[in-house]
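As a warm-up, study this chain.
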Amino acid sequence: MGLIKRFWRWFRKPVNVAVGTLLSLGFVAGIIFWGGFNTGMEMSNTEAFCISCHEMEVNVYEEYVTTIHYTNRSGVRATCPDCHVPKEWTPKMIRKIQASKELYGKVFGLIDTPQKFEDHRLKMAEREWARMEANDSQECRNCHNFEYMDFTAQRTVAAQLHDLAEENGQTCIDCHKGIAHKLPKGHEVVREFPDLTSSGQ
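Now compare it with the structure written out below.
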């Protein structure tokens, strides 16, 4: 306790240093802190970091590498952060804090085996779907956008469904759950639109 009091007295003691010097030192320290913080955030925003957890590498990553988001004719790849981390600073920070639940699950062994992961998959997926629905599937829209779609180049049913979704103000995740990872057990696929294929359209 005495050490804390001595430090507090030293910390509050005035020194014979010019205000300009203190401001300059504070400015430089701020730049160093911000640079280090931003570098750390970017390092944690890579696919290599995402799959450094055994739970991610052997479960969802294995599913993702079999999808069109990983390998496709155009050679464009959507990595883990492209879909799961917003690009804007404040939403990105919020998402990073939310992701700490997954770290908690790893540390305390809630998802450390494939079976435990499967047991929690529905809850984790529903949380992510809700997040994507709340932000209008912003991460999807960084690459896919109704405004840029050429409906004439799509299959008839796909074009009709996209047109209806745009009219109804729906978002990507309403229809495209399971696009990069398998659907959890217990999730019921709810058809948002009438079956256009059976109506002869």
